[in-house]
Amino acid sequence: MLTVWTQLSGYSLGTHQERVELNPSISLPTNGTTGVTYKLISGTLPGGIRLVGSALVGSPYEVSRPTEFKFCIRASKNGEISDRTFSITIEGADAPVFVSAEGALAIGEFQQYYVMDSSYVDYQLEATDLDTAAGQTLSFFIASNNGELPPGLILTQEGKIIGYVEPTLAIPESAGDGSFDAGLFDAIAFDFGTVSSNGYDSYIYDSVFFDFNLSSERPKKLNRNYEFIVTVTDGDTYVKRKFGIFVVGDDYFRADNTTWLDGNGLFTADVTYLRTPSWITPNNLGYFRANNYATISIDVYQTSEPVILTFNSGMLPPGLTFDINNSKIYGTIPYQPAITKTYTFTITATRYGDHGDSVASSRTFTLNVIGDIDSVITWNSPTTLGRINANFISNFAVIASSTIPDANLTYTLMSGRLPPGLTLNANGEIFGKVTQYGEYRTVGSTVIVDKLGLTSFNSDQVNHPTGTSRPTTFDGGTFTLDRVYAFTVKAQDQLGYSAVTKQFIITIDTPNQLVFSNIKVKPFLKLDQRDAWRDFINDPSIFTPSSIYRIEDTNFGVQTDLSLVIYAGIETTEAPAYISAMGLNHKTKRFQFGAIKKAVAITPGTNNQIYEIVYIEMIDPLEANGKKLPSSITRLEPQKETIFADNANSYWASGFAYHKPTPTITEQELLNQLAVPAPVSPRNNELISVDSTGYKSSDPNSKVYYPSSISIWRNRIKNTIHADSTKLASERNYLPLWMRSIQPGKKQELGFQLAVPLCYCKIGTADTIMLNIKYSGFDFKILDYTADRYIIDSVDGYTGDKYLVFKNNRITV
Predict the structure, then answer these.
(1) pLDDT tens digits for 782-796?
(2) In the chain, N or C terminus with fewer CB closer than 10 Å?
(3) Is 310 within 8 Å of 347 (Cβ atoms)?
(4) Comparing 11-91 with 516-622+710-805, is the CATH topology the same?
(5) What pLDDT digit, counting tens, does each position of 351-384 carry?
(6) 85: burial class by Cβ within 10 Å (0-12, 13-18, 19+)?
(7) What predicted TM-score, i.e. pTM, was given to this entire model?
(8) Where are the domains of the chain?
C-alpha cells in the first residue's frame, strides 16, 4: 500500500474566490514522496483549475453561487496506488447591475423623454451579471406595490417594454363639451370645456366690440408620469431600480393648447401631434405556392388620424397587385419553374393631420414563391422502431421532414395495425400502453370485446370492436412468439403538396404471463381549492406548451390530477387481496408539500435522455427527515374503553357502529353511497368483525397501535398474499422511468420518490418551468392533500380505476 497522503479522505482545500488566480498554488497534503504521479480519477475540479503534479493551479471560472467541488486524486508509484477524496469551495456570486439609468426613460421614437399616447413602444432595459457566464439568466419583473406601467404596455421577462400606449382621458367623451345644460349640473368637472382666454374684458375700453372672445380648448387627454420599480434577478440575488415614463396626449401639441408650459427642456420646437405610423404586418410575408390565388393584408396601427399606404419601390410577384383602397396584395401567381424566388418591395405608410401636415414610415417586405413542383418529404425514423414490454407505456414516435420551410406534417395510419392499446396521434407520437390480455364480457350468447389483447379469439359469436365477425385467429392470422406488428403511416404537409408512406415495425415482448397494477392516491379538493389548482396547472405562461413533452399524451404532458404513486407494479388479482393488505396501518392521511424538483428520464443502458420531469416532493409527517416507524407500537397504558363481543359475533366500541362503505367500488357507486345518509355515531367507530387481526379478545383494552406511514403502506402492499396463500409478484420496471434513471452527477438510480408530477417537459426546459412556478407565486399549502383511499388501475373482474377505502379504525395512528 502506497503511503503518501497526510490527510484523510474528505479533506477540504479551503474556500477561494472566482476569477482570482490561486497564487501560490494549492499543494495537496502529501508527505513529499518522490517519484509519485497524481491523477484525477473521479469528480470534477472547478473550471479553470488543473492538476499539475501534486498541486492545483489556475484561476477558478465564474460560479453562479458558492459551489463545493468534490474530486478524487490517485497517487501511483511502481504499481502501488493510493486514493484520496478532497473538496474545494469557490465563492463569488455576483449581483446583477443595471445599465439603464435610473429615472425617466428615453422611450420616445427619437429618444425623447416622453411618449405620445397611442404610440408603439419597444424599449429594452439593460442589466449585466457576470454570473451569466456560469449559465444563469437574468429575469425582469415589477413586484407587487412597485408601481405600474402605462396602460397598454407590458414588461417581458427579458426586460423589454412593449405595446401600444393607451390614452388617459380627462373626462369621458359621453360627458359632452361642457356647454350650458349639456349634461347634469355639477355631475362632472368640465375642465376641457370651451372657455375664453382673451375676451372683452382683456382689452382697452372700446377697442373691441362687446362680448368679443377667442374660443380655445383645454386638452381632453391627461399627461401623466408613470413611475415603477423594476426588479432584475439571476435566480439568487435581486436588484431594484426606479424608472419613469411620461405619457403626453396628442392634443397637448396643438397650437390652440392654452396649458402649455415651456422652459422645462423636455419639449423642442419640432414637436408634433402626429405619430409615425407603426407597422403590424411583419417584414417576412412567408411562402406562397405558384399557380395559386393569394391575398395578403398590409396593416398599420390605426389612430384618429387617417393613414394612406402607397407602393413605393421594388417588385411584386407576377399576377399580384397592391390595392391602395383596402391595403391588400391580391391576385393569382402564375406558373413558376422548379425554384423558389424571393421578391422584395417597399410600402410607405403616411399619416395626415388636419392641416395638411404629414408624417411617414416605410417598410421593406419579402415574399417567397415556391415553384410548381411537389415538396419532398423524407422519413427520419427507422423502419424498426424498437421493442416494448406488454403493459408498458409507449415513448415511440414517427418523424419526417419536408423541404418546405416551417412545414407542419400530419401523420395518418394507412394500413396494418398497431399493437393493442397503442394509437397514432396526428403529430406522429404513438400513445398508450400495450394491452397483453383483452377484456371480454358476455351478454346472453354474445361475447362483447371491450379491449383487444395480444392474442384474440374471434368467432361468429364475438362482437368485435371493428363491428365484424371473423373466424378464430391467432395474432391476426399468424401465431408469432416475438409479437411483431407492422403498420404503414402516411406523412403529409399541411398544404397537401405531397405525401409519403412508410412501413414501421414494433416488437412486443412478454417477459412474463402476469398482469400488474399500479396503486396511487389523490386528494378530493374543495371547490375553491380545485379552482385555484386548475388555474395554476392550466396556465400556459407557467407550463409553456412549446416546452412540454408529448403534450397531448395523458401519460405525459401536464399532469392535472395531483396523483401520487404509492406502489407501481404489483400483481393484479382480486380486490380482497388488496383489501387484506389495508387491514392494518391504513388510515386517512394528510401529506405535506415539499420542494419543487426536477429529474431526467434516460433510456436504460444508454445515455439517451428522453424527457425531464418537474415534480413536487411530498412529505409524510410520520417519516419526516427520513425516519421510519415500526409496523406496530405499544403504549404503556391501554385505552380506557373496553371492546366486547355481542350476540351477532361483532365487536363494537360503546355499542355504536357506523356505515362502512364497500371497499371496492366504482366512482358512480361511491357517489351513490355518499348520497345516502349514514347512521350517526358519537365516535364514528368502524364495524369490527371477529376475524379482525388488529383486535384481540385477549386484549379488550388494546394498547397496541399501528402507525399509518408510507413505508409501511408499501411494505404491506409488497407482502400482499394471494387467496392461495402465495405472495403476489412485484415488477420494478413499472416504476416510472425517471425514478429508474441515474441522474446527472450521481452514481445510482434515483429510486422510488414520494412525489406528485406537475409536468413532463423536453430536455433542457425544466429549469425554466421551475422558475416560472417560483415567480407565479402559487402557494401549494392552500391545497389540502388528504388521501382516504387507494385508487388501483385494475383488479380481476373489473375494468377501469377502482377505489379501495381505508377503514380508519381507532387502533391505527
Answers:
(1) 999 999 999 998 887
(2) N
(3) yes
(4) no
(5) 887 777 788 889 999 999 987 665 688 999 999 9
(6) middle
(7) 0.51
(8) 11-91, 97-170+222-253, 284-370, 377-509, 516-622+710-805, 633-663+671-705
